[in-house]
Amino acid sequence: MEPSPAHSTGGAPSPAARHGGKEAATVFAGLVLLTALELGVIRAPGVGRGPVVAALVGLAITKASLIALFFMHLRYETRILRFTVFGPLAAPAVYALALMADAAWRLLR
Amino acid sequence: MWIFLVSDAFSFGGLLIAYGILRSGAAVWRQAGEPALGVGFTAGLTLLLISTSLTNVLGYGAAARGDRRRAALLLGVTALGGALFLVGQAQEWFGIWGPGLVREGLVFGHSARASTFYITTGYHGLHVLVGVAYILTILVQFLRGKVGPPQIELLSLYWCFVDFVWVFVFSFLYLMP
Lengths: 109, 177
Description:
The complex is a heterodimer. Chain A contains three helices and no strands. Chain A is mainly α. Chain A is flat. In chain B, about 80% of the residues lie in helices and about 0% in strands. The chains are: A mainly alpha, B mainly alpha. At the A-B interface, helix 1, helix 2 and helix 3 of A face helix 1, helix 2 and helix 6 of B.
């Protein structure tokens, strides 16, 4: 099995390092754009709280995924490591969604 | 490193879930006299932190290609950006060149909003502080030839994780209506 980048011990550049600057700059531009979108969403006139919250959660998850996949090189890691990282992180996300659904239910009751 | 980062993510997850529970259960979240959070200023800090992730990743790439001088420069810029983020957070909390949140009435312990804000952003700020120290330590060792790309990649993972977490802190604490 090819050693994962985070556990390489030297020698040739890891797969993540070979992708270099262009990809990182593209991801950086995407993160700046998404941050600008977040600021636009909270200032958008006439949009209800629910859609704003949903948009902010979606944008945050997208930004975090870009950072994890490209800046933290998870995209170039093994499938097992990707699952090991994203699997447990889904638990608090699901819990948070359940809490949001519960709060919405109490508001509508 | 990944095991540490996942466990650390749970600690932030716990803080953010506690924030969500407290906020959704509160009849009034922002108490009378409490200031609004400076979204524009913090958006600037967010862009600064994202920029340092970029310089860190590029620094690792330079180190992996054997461009030691460029790698050292980029790591130094990353540490500087992290230090500037901490200065920005100190300005936001206490005020350096203007009134801070504490003086404006957002006092730890006076409301759930204030306490969750200071605990969560403070815990993140502690991670930034540790990250700056980590970068400077690795940078010195790199310049002495004692560490190489593998150690810089581990550092890069930690630093980008600090950015990863801030994405959620910024969205939930500062932007949520």
